[in-house]
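User: Please predict the structure of the protein below. I'd like the answer in structure-token form so I can feed it into my own downstream comparison script.

Assistant: Understood. Taking the following sequence of 234 residues as input:
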Amino acid sequence: MFANFGANDFVMENGRLRSAVNSDKAVEATEMWVKLVHSCSSVSSWRQNPWNEASADLGAGKVAMLFDADINAYMQNVEGYSKESGNIVFTPAPLVNPNVKVASNLWAWGLGMNNASNHKEASWLFMQYFTSKDFIRWAALNANLVHPARRSVMADKDYVRHIRKVEGLEQTLNEQLENARTLFTPHASFFDTTNEWASALKKMVNGEYADTRQGLDELKRKIDNLLDKAGTSQ
């Protein structure tokens, strides 16, 4: 959502990585987010409701809408998995500017082998098997793997027929994947800066700043200070 407003988390200034969380677009996006929390959620409990509990609330019919990764709502829609299975519909993310293509963050898991492994051949065979086209196709068709990491499987006729059972899923995947990429900026202080960001959002929701811009101006100073301490330049 942040990116779809045209905001960036970081920018390069004179060869140094600097926070951009207080840009005009970032302020606009954050103001809308804070308003959504106040109007559509419990201000006292929203931060204690992680992604899996938010998913469970959708499946239980406690919430009307979930804005999240594809798999989160998909699992609740599997037959027999939840009270609302079969009733969940997918739609592409709403846009502030309908003339701009939706930007979707691409999250990825991976398999890796430690160079110190005493079983490199077995590890390599393990990774080959679980990333192979045959296994991923089987998992997509038989084990509810909603996001196969292979174009060939995404285009497989049986897979397409399989996801068409869920209303809106095929259209949503196609539109979101067209412009999907990793939207956050990778850097050495990633976890420290995102923790600061989360803390600032909590304070903004709780009304601890005069306005959103004040909170984001302070957040930028904290993030830039973390980057300077870490010597992060790129």
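That's the full token string. The mean pLDDT is 91.
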